[in-house]
Amino acid sequence: MPKKKKEISRRKFISSSACAALGVAGHSLLRSDPLWGSSTENKLKVALVGTGIRGSGTWGKTLLENYGDVLEMVGLCDINPKRLEYAKQYMGAKCPTFVDFKQMIDSTRPDTVIVTTTDCFHSKYICLAMEMGCDVITEKPLATDENLCQNILDTEKKTGKKLIVTFNYRYSPDAVKIKEILMAKEIGEVTSVDFNYYLDVYHGASYFRRWHGFKQFSGSLLVHKATHHYDLMNWWLAAEPVEVNAYGEL
What we know:
Oligomer: single chain
Helix content: 40-55%
Largest sheet: 6 strands, parallel
Radius of gyration: 19 Å
Number of domains: 2
Number of helices: 11
Strand order of the largest sheet: 3-2-1-4-5-6
Order of helices and strands: HEHEHEHEHEHEHHHHH
Structural class: alpha/beta
CATH superfamily of the largest domain: NAD(P)-binding Rossmann-like Domain
Shape: globular
CATH class of the largest domain: Alpha Beta
Strand content: 5-15%
């Protein structure tokens, strides 16, 4: 399959799965009012920090095109002003842009903040958003090490705000079908799982051509990529692990 065609297919899947993820998040996180989103006055006010391809595409353009009737993008934030302006135009957003996150929250007062920054900064913006009174939706992974994760959990408990970590891989057709089979008990009770995941040389190599290849930014592929696989196991089995270990090599 040509590389270009394969990449388009992947991005299309990510965009459509993000819509499914937001649909789930909307019911459990954003508003309990059954009339939420039924009028202009009830639109959810959303701000986004991190306007790379995932932020501007999956959580920007895709959301506005599919959920513009129930949400309003009130602010965009990034440290790169030129990327901010491009993202705003690409998304079709009509909102102010900011290079200062706190200023954006103070000025726009969003209900929910979407965090799509480099992984190592997730904790910073998640905690700031909750401390400033916002619920949060963040791209996986939650954070890049256990200390940052604990900071987030402590802040969530202290503020009483809600956080959802999105995993688009749950919404791929094969993953959904496996979940259906397991829930229907078609193979009986699951007593043991041997799960191996092999990353192909095309998609796997692409990580090392960008910031994901640096451990200080992504936590390594054992964090950035393997979180998908641990999440799938937790979801499929409706259980959480008692102990986890991993190994790998180039």
